[in-house]
From TrEMBL:
High-level lineage: Bacteria, Pseudomonadati, Bacteroidota, Flavobacteriia, Flavobacteriales
Species in which this protein is naturally found: Kaistella montana
Catalytic activity field: O-phospho-L-serine + 2-oxoglutarate = 3-phosphooxypyruvate + L-glutamate; 4-(phosphooxy)-L-threonine + 2-oxoglutarate = (R)-3-hydroxy-2-oxo-4-phosphooxybutanoate + L-glutamate
Domain Aminotransferase class V, chain residue ranges per copy: 6-346
Signal peptide positions (record): none
Protein name: Phosphoserine aminotransferase
Chief subcellular location: cytoplasm
């Protein structure tokens, strides 16, 4: 079976080299005569993996030692809970959230269980078709939470606001896809399975000085400070996803880093958006200025062409193009590992419809 053109939104395509090297590590890790899956997470071989996986994130993000890097279980969804647990004051806690999609709304829902949540901007009434920009966040808030890329609707924050409080960002679906000043954030999290690894591990990058200030009694497993103190080995980490994430980040670093990935991602997105704009059969769900470089959500304007289109892209070897069940239509996810050749195949199908 030849490799499909994989536009899946997540878990998603990773570099072929990552699939090969991680498959090899399952059979014989580092030539030690053991599988990666059967060695202790405290063994020197795995500790080296975790150390490098933590270090490479700081290099790629250009962050100093004020920050700590953690690889945690529970998905980005657990961070919807850990963030307020660790950052919202136990008395009169109050946080500001930007509501830009289903995931942002999920984070808001959980935070409300810990204190007051003010939604300072929302595009919910407009089917999340744009990123609200007209708001301010003052120092009365314990933190501000935003979602850099809205995986379902295909919108992306191109700039980030200056706020008078801690800045927290869910970067699950565009982490390492574009150059950002990461030092403007106090806490960043991302489920690995969208752009930096397989499912099963979540990256958390946190500025140490913000921890331990809520007056809350936090269960150890949910306490960032405990994970920091144990160098991300508080309990058994998800060893395989951590290793495959490390390989993915090494591949990124060896291929020009984030700057080169950004240039490739811009070229892919341009190719596809130009076709959507040119072709009278298609349109995006969102405002042009907020279009995502990672997830291109679009729909067919002439429903009678649906069957022909679906058959054509499937016949062209394309996989994972259906839109999220909540909005339908189509979604082409253009994550780092997707080659521009795959985008060209899709564009050719659209042209010929
Ligand atoms: C996928 C996604 C999530 C949820 O991730 P899980 O790891 O499945 O919990 C959260 N936020 C964003 C932006 C996502 O794309």
């Amino acid at each position: 079976m030849s490799k499909k053109h994989n536009f899946s939104a997540g878990p998603c395509i990773l570099p072929q080299e990552v699939f090969e090297k991680s498959a090899q590590a399952i059979l014989d890790f580092n030539g030690i005569g053991l599988s990666l899956l059967e060695i202790s997470h405290r063994s020197k071989d795995f500790v080296a993996v975790m150390d490098e996986a933590r270090a490479i994130v700081k290099r790629l993000m250009n962050l100093n030692d004020d920050y700590e890097v953690l690889y945690l279980g529970g998905g980005a969804s657990l961070q919807f809970v850990m963030v307020p647990f660790n950052l919202m004051k136990s008395e009169n806690g109050k946080a500001a959230y930007l509501d830009t999609g289903v995931w942002a709304a999920g984070a808001i829902k959980e935070a409300k269980k810990f204190g007051t949540v003010d939604v300072v901007g929302s595009s919910k009434e407009d089917n999340y078709s744009f990123i609200p920009k007209d708001y301010t966040v003052g120092s009365e808030y314990d933190y501000f939470h935003c979602t850099s890329n809205n995986t379902i609707y295909g919108t992306q924050m191109k700039t980030f606001p200056k706020v008078d409080t801690l800045m927290v960002c869910d970067m699950s679906s565009d982490i390492f896809s574009r150059q950002i000043d990461f030092s403007q954030f106090d806490l960043i999290y991302a489920g690995a399975q969208k752009n930096m690894g397989p499912a099963g591990v979540t990256l958390v990058v946190v500025k140490k000085e913000i921890l331990g200030k809520t007056g809350r009694d936090i269960p150890s497993i949910l306490d960032y400070s405990q994970h920091v103190a144990k160098e991300s080995m508080y309990n058994t980490p998800p060893v395989f996803p951590v290793y495959a994430s490390l390989l993915t980040l090494q591949h990124l670093e060896n291929n020009g880093g984030i700057a080169a990935a950004e240039a490739r991602n811009e070229a892919k997105a341009k190719l596809l958006y130009e076709e959507i704009d040119r072709n009278p059969l298609f349109e995006t769900f969102c405002k042009e200025e907020d279009r995502s470089l990672m997830n291109v959500s679009f729909r067919l304007l002439d429903e009678s062409k649906k069957e022909t289109f679906d058959n054509a892209w499937k016949a062209a070897g394309i996989s994972g193009l259906n839109g999220h069940r909540s909005i339908g239509g189509y979604r082409a996810s253009l994550y780092n590992a997707l080659p521009i050749e795959s985008v060209q195949v899709l564009v050719d199908v659209m042209k010929n419809l």
